[in-house]
Design a protein that fits this description.
alpha+beta, 8 strands, Aminopeptidase
Length: 181
């Protein structure tokens, strides 16, 4: 099992099938804040849906195509962060994340993403990390901006979200830039 301690409050761990109920509960409690930015929220209707997600994430990890972790805050599941896509040929990881509503504003996500970046550059040997966020999602965009990522551009109408397209802002960080920080 993957367990990576970030600090005295936060750790990242592989989600396992037995985490399906707490993951569903966290999703269900946070629908109002998650839904404007994440298309999968409406498709997560039962604990079984969360279990299916976890099984898919574990398969993606086994295939070395991704890494999805639960964020533990004082031992409680607070959100999810990971590499939605790992390109091992080019040593690139694309980070995605979300946090339960009651955990927002505590610096949890910034610390979790920072820890994941350390793991990626120092343990996985990645060279580049990307984060993409909807241009209007200021909370999500604040994470890479706070961590010193370079805003590299904007992809127009790159995601269909319910009834409209949204633009994504692309942020990048290179291993040597992170080490120099």
């Amino acid at each position: 099992m993957f367990l990576f301690e970030i600090d005295e409050e936060i750790a990242l761990k592989h989600l396992e099938v037995h985490d399906a109920a707490p993951l569903f509960r966290l999703t269900d409690e946070s629908r109002t804040t998650l839904r404007p930015w994440l298309a999968w929220v409406d498709h997560t209707k039962t604990v079984e849906d969360s279990k299916t997600f976890i099984e898919s994430a574990l398969k993606q990890f086994a295939d070395k195509r991704g890494l999805t972790t639960g964020i533990l805050y004082h031992g409680e599941l607070a959100g999810v962060v990971g590499f939605n896509h790992l390109d091992r040929k080019n040593n690139i990881g694309v980070i995605g994340y979300w946090l339960g509503s009651k955990y927002v504003g505590k610096g949890i996500m910034t610390r979790a993403v920072s820890g994941l970046i350390d793991y990626a550059f120092y343990s996985l040997g990645l060279n580049r990390i990307e984060i993409r966020a909807a241009s209007a999602n200021k909370q999500s965009r604040a994470i890479p901006e706070r961590l010193g990522f370079v805003q590299e551009g904007q992809l127009r109408q790159t995601e269909w979200l319910y009834n409209h397209y949204v633009d994504h802002v692309v942020y990048g960080m290179l291993a040597h830039e992170w080490r120099e920080k």
